[in-house]
Amino acid sequence: MTTLARECDIKCLMDKYRSCRAYHGELHDHANTGGTSDGKCTLAQWRNSLASLKMDFAAILDHRQVRHMYLPDWEDGLFIGGSEPGTLIADSKAAEKQMHYNMIFSGPKDLENLLAEFPEFEFTGGPEGHFGYPSFTRARFCELIDAVKAHGGFFVYPHPKLLMRSDDPCDYWFRDETGIEVFYMDLVNKETEANYALWVDLLARGKRVWACAGGDLHAEATNTALTTIYAEEHTNEAYIRHLRVGDFTCGPVGVRMVIGDTKTGGHGCFAGKQLVVGVGDFHVSVINTTHTYRVDLINNNGVVFSEKAPCDQASFFAIDAGDCDFYRAEVWDVTRELRLAVGNPIWNV
Fold first, then answer.
1. Mutual angle of helices 138-150 and 108-117, in 10-degree steps
2. Which region holds residue 169: left if phi is over 0, alpha if psi is between -120 and 50, else beta?
3. Of 7, 224, 255, 337, which has the maximum CB count within 10 A?
4. What is the mean pLDDT of residues 138-149?
5. In what order do the strands lie in the sheet with 274-280?
6. 98 close to 163: Cβ distance less than 8 angstroms
7. Are 194 and 161 in contact (CB under 8 A)?
8. In whole angstroms, what is the distance from residue 49 CA to residue 285 CA?
């Protein structure tokens, strides 16, 4: 087993992320954009807040409308589009069946086409068009998720433990290769703790879902539940391309992994290969050079490797990939006993 990665290991990792840099942002919030929006701050206020917090993007997912993506202050790369509808799953076993879901797109047209494809939304069409919150059977809801993917979008189940009340983890799973919001509003609170436990349970049951983060404060930008994406450029298309394959980090630290040709979020054969991990690009909000930080590498059997890592430069690690279901990485602020970031898994096939 190698702890510090060799030069060839680092080159292998960096080749897979050639021309990519780390972007930090917010993947779930709302603004005051008129119509049916319920955010408290305008897009102009969001723009100023993002700049002051050194954040690169925010997903503004206003309810029941698409008009926010047509406003003059909307800017590709700074604001990612989409919407957060709600629904009742008619045949769910959960005691409380209501749930929300985030449909994230690079632009408004894909969302409009999706809404028009499902008459249940009763979408009135156009930039000022609105839509309702229909009930779905579980099967029909899965068709909606498939359609989000087919239209180039990214589907996330936000704050799963906030509305639905069920002890069966599979009530919260609908499709693989979708996101589930783990960090909610902050890195530590009762919802985040419950969401993290749910996600870990789903992984243990063989579900391939990606950990996400979201602020959802409906106010100005905050840096308490960040997402880190290594992308080729500061555009929605580049962000969405990585989100759709799970190649991003739930948290304010960059985590990149490869096993052979398979990157973070993907699945491939582990036999005879090495897991190579790069950790760095800490967001300014969590950098404290007097603190101790740690990287844990985890598979379905638990933590298999731990090593200290500085917050002000990149660290690289490599281990032989064993016969397990998946590998993933977590970054901790040891001084505060705080889980800072959750890297998405690579699954074995």
1. 150
2. alpha
3. 255
4. 97
5. 262-263, 254-259, 274-280, 315-320
6. yes
7. yes
8. 14
pTM: 0.97
- C-alpha 284/C-alpha 25 separation (Å) is 12
Computed on alpha carbons and rounded to an integer, the radius of gyration of the chain in Å comes to: 20
Q: How confident is the model at residue 168 (pLDDT cuts 50, 70, 90)?
A: very high
pLDDT tens digits, 36-48:
999 999 999 999 9
Q: How far apart are the first and last CA of the chain?
A: 22
Within 13 A of 163's CA, how many CA atoms are on the CB side?
15
Name the one residue in this structure whose structure tokens are 């969405």. Answer: 240
Q: Which two tokens stand for residue 220?
A: 């100005």
pLDDT digits (tens, 9 = 90+) for 175-225: 999 999 999 999 999 999 999 999 999 999 999 999 999 999 999 999 999
Cβ neighbours around 4 below 10 Å, total = 11
pLDDT value for 91: 76
pLDDT at 2: 45
Residue type, 240: I
| d(C-alpha 98, C-alpha 215), whole Å | 20
| HSE value, Cβ hemisphere, 13 Å, CA-based, for 320 | 5
How far is residue 327's CA from residue 135's CA, in Å, rounded to a whole number?
A: 37
- CA atoms of 74 and 59, how far apart (whole Å): 11
Q: What is the DSSP string of 6-53?
A: PHHHHHHHHHHTTT-EEEEEEEEE----STT---SS-HHHHHHHHHHT
Q: Report, in this order, helix, strand and coil percent for the chain, each rounded to 5.
A: 25, 30, 45
Closest CA to 295 of 320, 330, 264: 330
The DSSP letter of residue 246 is T
